[in-house]
Amino acid sequence: VANHQDFIRAEIAGRSILVQNFDGLLRGFYNVCSHRHARLRATDCGNGLLRCPYHGWTYNAEGVPVGIPGNSEYFGLDRDARQSLALRSVAVECCGDLVFARLASDGPDLATALGSGPWASRSIARPSPGPQTGRSASKARSKAIIST
Amino acid sequence: MIHPDSFRPLTGTVAPSEFAGPHSYGPTALSDAGRASIDRMAVRLGLARTERYTGYDHFFIFPNMMAVASAGTFLSLQIYEPTGPETTRLKFWMSAGASTKPAQRRSVTGRAIERSLTEFNDRVLGEDQRISEQVQLGKHLAADPAHLGRNEDRIAAFHAAWRQSMGIR
Both ends of chain A: CA-CA distance in Å? Predict the structure, then answer.
């Protein structure tokens, strides 16, 4: 998820989530559209606008639907109404090249959760050096580590 | 968006829905391309047509049946059978009216037209199936009811009728 609009999909405790890069900022959300409940991401990784494949609702970095086809004609959603339909967010933090996500809206941050042991070292989260190049290296960097 | 290159180019303006109890009717005009495509098939195969329905006329008969007339030429029937909490079986039939050119309808050309129609329907239904499966998976993650627009009033009516029939307020 190094580039703008890169995304990954993962499961935490049986719940599908997505993590997406918005201009360098990683955001996590439950993987479900507020409109008709289609899953927003059907593949494990990729790149593209956070847009529902069903009716095209498009979400910004805050999870707010900012693009709703036929909004004025069929929905009449103003700014506040669209805000109320924002995606449920998931806490996301990085350690080195690993991405951690937490479903609960509150709780210890990643540094606290990792403690002072070897897991706290950012270097442990880097891909191992060696022959990994190009696509395989990129794939390794997209691996999500998840927690509840 | 669903059906961007298959069904959507064939349709035009959506007219207001009509309701009869829990049942509903959704009339949608065909696009010029959609109408021309069906016209060509109807003429070549000599198919009987009705003038009563000229667009994509979609009837929903509560709780699980749909009948669709396309340009008054083809009629499709769909029955949705729940087979479990997470699964549904779709039964689908499509038919055309009597032909004034039965030999043409049985010819290689006739069979090719029939095959292309079948392939087109399979494609559209496949797109429906894939997105429906994504909704079925997604609904377990939803914290709030679906947010339906005024163009989705038939779905809202179905939900209301279903809740009423199940004794859910």
Answer: 21
Are B71 and B39 contacting, i.e. CB atoms less than 8 angstroms apart? yes
B4 in A contact zone (CB under 8 Å)? no
Nearest Cα neighbor of A48 from A88, A77, A8 is A8
Report the Cα A10 to chain-centroid distance in Å. 9
Which residue does chain A place closest to B152, by CA atoms? A74
pLDDT for the residue A142: 38
Greater confidence (A108 vs A30) lies with A30
Distance CA A46, CA A20 (A): 9
Classify A13 in phi/psi space as left (phi over 0), alpha (psi -120 to 50) or beta: left
B48 CA to chain A: closest CA distance, Å? Answer: 35
ipTM score: 0.89
Across chain A, which distance is largest between two alpha carbons, in Å? 57
Closest approach of B5 to chain A, Cα-based (Å): 13
> In sequence order, what are the residues at sequence separation of 6 or more whose Cβ sits closer than 8 angstroms to the Cβ of residue A123?
A96
Apex CA A78: angle with CA A105 and CA B161, to 5°?
80
Q: Give kind and range of the element (H or E) at residue A65.
A: strand A65-67
Chain A residue numbers with beta carbons less than 8 Å from the beta carbon of B135 are 36-39, 54
Average confidence score pLDDT of chain A: 85
Strands A98-102 and A89-95: antiparallel
Distance of CA A82 to the CA centre of its chain: 20
